[in-house]
Amino acid sequence: MVLDTPTLSPGEAMVLAGLPMTEAGDAARDSLKASGLPNRRVEAFKWTDLRAALSEPVADPDGSAGLIPACLQEALVLDFAPDGFGLEGDKDEGLIIETEHSLPMDGAGPVAVLAAGRAPRAVVLRVTSPQTRPIVLRRHPGAPMRLRIELADKAELTLIDMGLAAAGLATGLIEADVGAGARLIRYSVQRGGAQAIDLTHTSVEVANGGSYAAVSLMFGAKLARAETTVCLAGSTARCDLSGAYLLAGQSHADMTIRVVHRAPGSETREVFKGAVQDRARGVFQGKILVERAAQQTDARQNHHALMLSEGAEIDVKPELEIYADDVQCAHGNTIGALDDQALFYMRQRGIDAVTARALLVEAFVTEVFDAMTDPGLRDWFVGLARDWLAEVRA
Amino acid sequence: MPAVKETIETVESIAEYEHGFVTEIEMDMAPKGLNTDIVRFISAKKEEPQWMLDWRLRAFERWQTMQEPSWAMVRYPAIDFQDAYYYAAPKAKVELNSLDELDPEILATYQKLGIPLREQEVLAGVRGAPRIAVDAVFDSVSVATTFREELAKSGVIFCSMSEAVREHPELVQAYLGSVVPLSDNFYATLNSAVFSDGTFVYIPPGVRCPMELSTYFRINAAETGQFERTLIIADKGSYVSYLEGCTAPKRDENQLHAAVVELVALEDAEIKYSTVQNWYPGDKNGLGGIYNFVTKRADCRGARSKVSWTQVETGSAVTWKYPSCILRGEESQGEFYSIAITNGHQQADTGTKMIHLGANTRSRIVSKGISAGRSNNTYRGQVSAHAKAKGARNFTQCDSLLIGDQCGAHTIPYVEAKTPYATFEHEATTTRLSEDQLFYCRQRGLPTEDAVALLVNGFVREVLQELPMEFAVEAQKLVAISLEGSVG
Amino acid sequence: MLKIHNLHVDVGGTPIIKGLTLEVPAGEVHAIMGPNGAGKSTLSYALTGRDGYEVTQGTATLNGEDLVSLAPEERAAKGLFLSFQYPLEIPGVPTLTFLRTALNAQRKARGEGEVSVPDFMKLSRDVAKKLGVTQDMLKRPLNVGFSGGEKKRMEIYQMALLDPRFMILDETDSGLDIDALKVVSEGVNALRGPDKAMLVITHYQRLLDHIKPDRVHVLAGGRIVDSGGPDLALALEKGGYDRYKDAA
Fold first, then answer.
1. Which of C76, C96, C86, C83 shows the shortest CA–CA distance to C142?
2. HSE on the CB side for C152, CA within 13 Å?
3. Which of B346, B369, C84, C246 is the most exposed place for a label (fewest CB within 10 A)?
4. Which of B272, B201, B204, B273 is nearest to B236 (CA)?
5. What CA–CA distances, in Å, run from B222 to A241, B219, B457?
6. DSSP state of B85
7. Which intervals of the chain form a coiled coil (chain A) (predicted)?
8. Which of A315, A320, A337 minimises the CB distance to B420?
């Protein structure tokens, strides 16, 4: 069967023209020319139509990377800007930072291919011992980020990635190898404007006894999609993922997560919450795949979301694909409006409806940040959520 | 771990498929292959009016532009649609005046399957036992329909689809394709072009159907596809409970079964549709078996209407089936209760769609999947609430049980919320048969296979309870047979 | 009745029971006491044939018949009953269905005829009355939603109904308040008889105030380290198990 080569939209053509002359750039070019960007007829992009979002040329990058909160003043900052990469702050022992060619990223889907293709070079972090100083990935509007992380056995690293684009196409690709007994912790804040498109793909492989823990907060953009693939390749590895999305106006946020259990005795915990209002759209796709060898897997996923107004939409696809029998796997999902009784209870005690609503939404959503051990970071996340609630009720 | 191993071995020695015999009978067949001539041939055989033929031809034209779906988690070799017979009917007199004129071989077949075709046999049964009217479909045609006169007294129409096209064209034209449109999907469109027979039911306003209605589908001929079409219309305020059963002989080749079932429930009407699907699943090496690619959909068109699907899926080599409800009427309700058991090399991708369009609509999904042997069992379901579906509620519970470490259990729900006034709840679990529970049962004296049957029946009880009594007993036995070599 | 000679049991490759010898004659009730981790539950699982409890050496016979080579259900049919420390919940399986299936399976294994439904219902009601088991409990799925006390009472109810010859009570008193303990003990005592015997496994003496043993054995380090009359239990209550530390 001969596939018709698609006619590229002006937006797609612009993305194509901006790809650098690297091997990964060539791969992205070939993929774009052959099939364009994925649209809603592609199962994994059913509710997040990239082709439609990029039908017109993307507006020029605008906005900032956002302010680094006080609790991260000591952090090492990696700056990703459209024109290159920079470094601010002190670097401790046991951390090596280099750059390398951007090589093609196979088998990880169109977002990864595009993000690899747009990055002129990849930044490599080699971590040989536990790092107490966190690393901030400051992502400027329109910047292509590509990062490769190697955590040696028993090494530890905390990453914070943040951006605040008003406009522009920003792409990110993080590939991490977590060694035996090593720990990678990641906190991410995504905020984008009505003209911004944010696409990030994270791929983590965890060895024996290692762990990956991530907490994310998304406010969406014209289109924002954060893909995470975690492969628990070693036994007794652990994966803790939690996140929240708060969406208003026309924003769109998509969390697409895939956790693969490849070896025995590993554990996954996922907790996600969302609140969506106006004409915004939240998408949560979460798959847990347990391969035949991964006996004694214990994997649980929960997603709970609130619909705050008419016109909003939430689309959810939790998925279990299980090939091992001695497992405990479960997922739960609820979507609905705020609890009327709780609202009434608070109003009966004298709290006005708007405040009561904000308090309830805040309590509902910020529960997922309880897992954050650093109180400064936790307060930062809760504060961002609270600010959003104050803003959208005005 | 001897007990677990023993369980797995027990389960792996798939029970002999007891309905696998072949009836030797002279058949009237269309030539092999699929083209407009075959479509015309089928229509002519059934002495159909022009509008029906035109409809078929439109479907066929459309089908030629369509592609077989590939999104389901099932794998099978490409089907050569030209290498099958699309019409096979037992040679018989054109008009049967009584069952006595039916080929004795066919009568014997149904007797062997335990399906009562003689009304007096039903009546001669235990006093007080519920009576069931049966439409028996043998390959491409309906061979007998019982209790029609008695049903006619209350205005219920219960006949073969072929007859309905001739005798009740106004009803057929008004409703056929109104739930599953001609262009709906690859298999449904194929069915629209070549459907042979099936059951037609009409329940008039306010009538509670005086007995259970049922259709028993039997594929007998080799290399033949079965494409039945069922249409059930429950007019305002009526009620009907309908049962469907299916079996086929053991054959080494794969046979296609692509049915379409359309249900229409008008205001305050209720339809309860139960299926025990026991098509030949193929042998223990995965050779042969039925490809069961079925489109079943209900339109809860009227306010407060209700449709309840209950299915026990134990057979077929490959199952692709999503009995769905379009909840259009205000306060209408949809239910889906499912037990899907796969063993050997079986593959099932089955579930439901609950499309909430009307206000205060409610749906409930309870799915119990059991995978054993080298099989794969997928629940795939969609629940959506559209902007006008204020007050819509869905509750979904999907549980999967794994027996042995060579099978797969998958859960793929899609949830789409487009109104803040709807509530969705979904829970899913996947576990294996508990060794602790097995040991407990054995300590109390139950042999392993009885213990497995008992535990599995406990696992699926919530769904079994939704079946009409006599079907539930049958299904409970089938659950044990499907999973065990020595039980049953 | 029950004869155990030089029994060795491994769990996951680790020896837990290391040469245990014990004889419980018909008509007697013996208690096995011992500190946590002594192998008390291992003994009950090994005797009833649970997977993963591997007898590596020694013999266990009931009325002269070897137990070790039999499947759990075959041992049950020979009249061996274990009252579990933690009775299982079995969702979806009504208690009465479970019991009738078990009773008939055992009878079938012994070459006896099935008990008819009316006879079984009468039997189940008669036994239920004696043990304060309500009809509601019997209709519910086995042990689902039962309190700890109800579960233990249900174990004794099953014991009464299945009429075994040799009963092992594994920590039957755990999770019971004093009133429940009395009901359960009375139920157990009613099942004593000249052709029956019991092994009561317990950590504490208090159960033995209600179920009076003929002999008391101390299990420590996988062996019987001391045996005596009922007085031994009282002595243990006062002195604890410390003095057997080295005996193992």
1. C96
2. 23
3. C246
4. B204
5. 53, 8, 34
6. B
7. none
8. A337
Residue window 286-325, chain A: list those with CB within 8 Å of chain B.
Answer: 292, 295, 305, 307-325
Domain residue limits at A28: 10-338
pLDDT of residue B115: 66
Nearest to A312 by CA among C102, B386, C18: B386
For residue A297, being part of any structural domain is answered with yes
Between these two residues, A341 and A193, which has the higher pLDDT value? A193
| C13 at B interface, C-beta within 8 A | no
Tell me the three state secondary structure of residue B16. coil
Structure tokens at C205: 């003496």
Q: Identify the CATH number of the domain in which residue C8 sits.
A: 3.40.50.300
| Shortest Cα distance, chain B CAs vs residue A107, angstroms | 18
Question: ∠ at Cα C23 (C18, C24), nearest 5°?
Answer: 130
Residues B160, B123: contact at Cβ < 8 Å? no
Residues for chain C: how many in total? 248
- Residue A342, Cβ neighbours under 10 Å: how many? 15
DSSP string, B130-148: PPEEEEEEETTEEEEE-SH
Do A211 and A185 touch, CB atoms closer than 8 A? no
Answer yes or no: are the C-beta atoms of B157 and B202 closer than 8 Å: yes
Residue A130 lies in a domain: yes
- In eight-state DSSP terms, residue B101 is G
B chain contacts of residue A320, beta-carbon cutoff 8 Å: 400, 409-412, 428, 430
d(CA A99, CA A121): 6
pLDDT at B331 over 90: yes
| Model pLDDT for residues A5-59, shown as the tens digit of each residue | 678 899 999 999 999 999 999 999 999 999 899 999 899 999 999 999 999 888 8
Q: Is residue A80 part of a domain?
A: yes
Cβ atoms C90, C142 nearer than 8 A = yes
Cα–Cα dist A65/A170, whole Å: 11
Cβ-Cβ contacts under 8 Å for B108 (sequence gap 6 or more) = B23
Closest by CA position to B482, among listed B188, B277, B327:
B277
For C81-95, give one letter per residue: b (16+ CB within 10 A) or e.
Answer: bbbbbbbbbbebbbb
C-chain CB neighbours of B444 within 8 Å are 73, 76, 81, 98-99, 102, 106, 158, 162
Residue the block writes with tokens 């909160």:
A69
How does strand C215-220 pair with strand C223-228? Answer: antiparallel
B240 beta partners: B271
The answer to whether C195 and C27 are in contact (CB under 8 A) is: yes
Domain count, chain C: 1
Q: Tell me the pLDDT tens digit for each residue of B206-250.
A: 999 988 888 887 777 777 788 889 999 999 999 999 988 877 667
* DSSP string of C9-77, one letter each residue: EEETTEEEEEEEEEEE-TT-EEEEE--TTSSHHHHHHHHHT-TTEEEEEEEEEETTEE-TTS-HHHHHH
Residue at token pair 């106004």: B170
Query: With 80 as the cut, is the pLDDT of residue C223 above it?
Result: yes
Number of domains in chain A: 1
Q: Which of A369, A334, A161 is nearest to A386 (CA)?
A: A369
What are residue A354's phi and psi, to 5 degrees? Answer: -65, -45
Residue A325 covered by a domain: yes
Share of chain A above pLDDT 90, in %: 78
Domain hosting C112: range is 2-244
Q: Is A335 on the interface with B (CB under 8 A)?
A: yes
Q: Are B277 and B311 in contact (CB under 8 A)?
A: yes
What is the Cα–Cα distance from A166 to A169, expressed in whole angstroms?
10
